[in-house]
Amino acid sequence: MSDKHSVGVVSPQRAHFAEPIQLASGATLAAYDLVYETYGRLNADRSNAVLVCHALSGSHHVAGHYADNPKNVGWWDNLVGPGKPLDTDKFFVVGVNNLGGCYGSTGPGSINPATGKPYGADFPVVTVEDWVESQARLADRLGINQWAAIIGGSLGGMQALQWSLEYPERVRHALVIASAPKLTAQNIAFNEVARQAILTDPDFHGGNYYEHGVVPARGLRLARMVGHITYLSDDQMGEKFGRQLREGVLKYNYDVDFEIESYLRYQGDKFAGFFDANTYLITTKALDYFDPARDFGGDLKAALARASAKFLLVSFTTDWRFAPERSREMVYALLHNNREVSYAEIDCNAGHDSFLLDDAQYHAVMGAYLHNIAV
């Protein structure tokens, strides 16, 4: 898109909270910071605010770019901006880096005021519920009593769903994209393999690698490679790479033979260069723990009875990590409670990562729904 459809240069902001936050684990953080960005303008009656919740490796940088680095474009820039599906001429959009993150919000790499050293292994496990609680405090700080909408894909979708349960009166619309009401055993298994790759890296040092001046890059690289396989579909991998050989001949050794191997190594190396391993551990645990039906004997219909928002759920046909049937579970449970629900199943061959792409049908669905939200 042309520049007129970009929010342009953006700057992150920081909110400090001196009030302690009690976490689901029983641990308490005495104080913490949340880094966030905003796009568009909050209207006079503060009715046009939209919260965007990020997934595992996402951040507060949802749209636009930084003045000192024009190539650092927000992760959902194709969706957010003037005239885009999430139109910043209409909405005031907020993106926040979750507690425990590694993009400026208080997390394992932050200095623990009690020790003067990075928290490291002392940083507590946080949950989706904890993120929603901290986001609600940020909303209070911004003077937003009710969100016009809360939107998220994957783990972000879980946050949007949890908002509708924890603060039903503060959410008018919840857009839950490529998500699930809880992880399957297979999904938990993938996360555990990824965590073990990090935990068994000799450079991990029990989570206190900061003091040793090292990064558990090998473990983080493997974790990302495993994760990346699950984000793509077999169709897309076949279409993009097939069995193409990197150099046209078999090498008969353990170096790269196939293009897909080269791609995974590149993605792993890139990720290990900027993401924090402890944050990866914390975030995958938050994924594993999310299960709003747990306190209702596994009955999702009973769990979702608290919600009063209107919903849009979107799934993608080739997403096998968060398959369409998982979205339909939520649709059925919400309909059982007589909630207003729209559902779209998008035919896209890109697997789980489809929610990040500029797919015409997907964006048309999102744009049409958001256009009809009154502010």
UniProtKB/TrEMBL annotation:
One GO MF term attached to the UniProt entry: homoserine O-acetyltransferase activity
GO BP, sorted A to Z: homoserine metabolic process; methionine biosynthetic process
Entry keywords, A to Z: Acyltransferase, Amino-acid biosynthesis, Cytoplasm, Methionine biosynthesis, Transferase
Catalytic reaction list: L-homoserine + succinyl-CoA = O-succinyl-L-homoserine + CoA
SUPFAM superfamilies, alphabetized: alpha/beta-Hydrolases
Residues the record marks as site: Important for acyl-CoA specificity: R321
Binding residues annotated for substrate, in chain numbering: R224, D353
Record's GO cellular component terms: cytoplasm
Pathway: Amino-acid biosynthesis; L-methionine biosynthesis via de novo pathway; O-succinyl-L-homoserine from L-homoserine: step 1/1
Protein EC: 2.3.1.46
Entry's localization field: Cytoplasm
Family: Belongs to the AB hydrolase superfamily. MetX family.
Function: Transfers a succinyl group from succinyl-CoA to L-homoserine, forming succinyl-L-homoserine.
PANTHER family with a match to the protein in the record: HOMOSERINE O-ACETYLTRANSFERASE
UniProt name for this protein: Homoserine O-succinyltransferase
Organism for this UniProt entry: Azospira oryzae (strain ATCC BAA-33 / DSM 13638 / PS) (Dechlorosoma suillum)
The gene coding this protein: metXS
